[in-house]
């Protein structure tokens, strides 16, 4: 069997071959150490996500179930600081109704200390309430733009594989942009694979997929595309939901029409009733003792 190496791979093999054993050992130890820290940061972030409790309607309404694992582990190399985040979905049945995005940030580029930040996003037509430690911290009456019909689209196909093709084609009809604080335009990239796909027949959703528009692999806007049926199980159609995932100004177009615009979050009066919430939520400190429970980042 012949193995063909690219120039980059060949150079890496030569470099490893020429590396003194002591240096090679240090390089491996450093890589293992960074991977260990990355895993511990994820455990820390998951512990923070566990502190949020989201209900439909009010505190006495049904509690939304959080997905066990993040649907996206992200960073953003375009920023001038270290960041590491995880995005979780909260479900009503099979349909995602809310998103909790948690991340750590370090302007000193430290891997084990910095700031903890959170984002809370509604994808729901119905009111939501999020509380932590017995205190309401977010209560949007509805998402920003939810369950709008996609006009002129061919009906959902019978095959799940074909419906996925249709959803990707529909997602490509959308264009999303963000605007930096200085007003500079930033065209966002549609991530090629949906972050999540689901079905909820009880709520009339035959098929659904959550897409993201990103900077790097940092989602800045979300697009939920769903194939639905009527109450009688016929007359399938497509609908979409849009949500911001950044404090920057965001604009989204469907074909040639602007369908969603939200202004810069930190320039507007912030209310707990808004469908999007962002906040610095305390310090991030990763304990040197690996056996310790992750410390809380709450203020």
List the helices and strands and how they pair.
Blueprint lengths: L6 H12 L2 H29 L3 E4 L8 E2 L5 E3 L7 E11 L2 E12 L6 E10 L5 E5 L2 E4 L6 E5 L10 H12 L2 E6 L5 E3 L1 E2 L5 E5 L4 E11 L2 E11 L8 E8 L4 E6 L2 E6 L13 E10 L14
Antiparallel strand pairs: 1-7, 2-4, 3-4, 4-5, 5-6, 6-19, 7-8, 9-16, 10-11, 10-17, 12-14, 13-14, 14-15, 15-16, 17-18
Explain what you see:
This protein has helices spanning 7-18, 21-49, 160-171; strands spanning 53-56, 65-66, 72-74, 82-92, 95-106, 113-122, 128-132, 135-138, 145-149, 174-179, 185-187, 189-190, 196-200, 205-215, 218-228, 237-244, 249-254, 257-262, 276-285. The protein has 299 residues and is an alpha+beta fold. The protein has two domains: 10-143 and 275-299, no CATH class; 145-272, no CATH class. The longest helix is centred in the first third of the chain and has 29 residues, at 21-49. The chain is globular. The termini are far apart.
Shape: globular
Oligomer: single chain
Distance between the termini: 59 Å
The major pleated sheet works out as:
6 strands, antiparallel
**Averaging pLDDT over every residue, what do you get?**
87
**What structural class is derived from the secondary structure elements?**
alpha+beta
How many helices? The count is 3
Low-confidence stretches: 1-16
Number of strands: 19
Summarize the helix and strand pattern as letters.
HHEEEEEEEEEHEEEEEEEEEE
Strand content: 35-45%
Q: Fraction of residues in helices?
A: 10-25%
Radius of gyration: 22 Å
What number of domains?
2
